[in-house]
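PROTEIN DATA CARD
Card holder: GNAT family N-acetyltransferase
Chain length: 109
Origin: Cytobacillus pseudoceanisediminis
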Amino acid sequence: MLTSSIRKYLNKGGNAMNKDIQKEENRFFMNDDEGNMIAEITYIPSGDSVITIDHTYVSESLRGQGVAGKLLESVVQEARIKGYKIVPACSYAKAVFDRKSEYQDLLAK
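Structure generated from the sequence above:
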C-alpha cells in the first residue's frame, strides 16, 4: 500500500536514485519530497570498532532500483573510513556480504 506522499512522488516522476542519502546517528536514510522516510538502513555499535547492521527498509514501490545497495554502500564507506568491522545481521546485508568479495575484509570475526 502506497502512502499518498509516495504516490504523489512517483506520479511526479520521482526516482529514488536521484534522492540524497542522509545520515543521522546509526542510520542512513532517504526521504521523499514531503519529508517522509522511503528507505533506511540502521546499525548499532557492537563493541569498540564493530557495528551490526540490524535493519534495511525500502518502500515497496522503490524496490528493485538499487536503493538498498546504495544505503549499504554508505555504511560500508563509513566503516572503512572509521576502521570499523561489520556484523551483517539483517537478511539483506547478510546476503550482500555473502555475495560481494570486496566486503569480506570488513566482516567482524
